[in-house]
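User: Quick sanity check before I run a bigger batch. Here is a single chain. Can you write out its predicted 3D structure?
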Amino acid sequence: MIRQVEYFEKGGRENSEKCLEITASLVDEGYKHVVVATTVGDTGVAMARRVQGKDLNLVIVTHSAGFKEANHLELLPENRDEILRLGGKIYTGTILTHSIETAFAQKFNGLYPTMIVAQSLRRFGEGPKVCCEIVMEACDAGLIPEFEEVVAVAGTGRGADTVCIIRSAASKRFFDLKVLEILAKPRK
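Assistant: Done. Predicted structure follows.
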């Protein structure tokens, strides 16, 4: 099946509704695993509401605690509760390309493999990079199976502006991860 690709003039939350629509149509086609990036939880809640009642494994991926500042989790408690109430799962952990190597790079001004991977993936945009990361993180946590076609949704800053279909793999098998389709992304 050939699907239409949605290109947005710019990234950001104004594209969220269209990304939710695209994702819901993929679920209607039969996709059983959806992984969504969220910061404070608004996008996660919106997706959970949109696919409520569907036979679906919905995994919401958040930033790790301390991502922006020490001892702080950006996911709002009320959004966490709503996602769980609607049947979603939540993964909170370290972003694969923003790990301990980032601390070394900042301290010693070096270049490390995960930073190269992150910058390489950013050539396609921030959203496709995050889509790859969250799929591996969800696999690493055992929340989605490996080697399955999954829908990944991410964005630039807040909201959603990217939808990809990815053949999943755990981070240990990074080279088995395949971006099969990019169905929505910003041009800028």
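The first strand starts at residue 6 and ends at 8.

User: Great, the batch can go ahead then.
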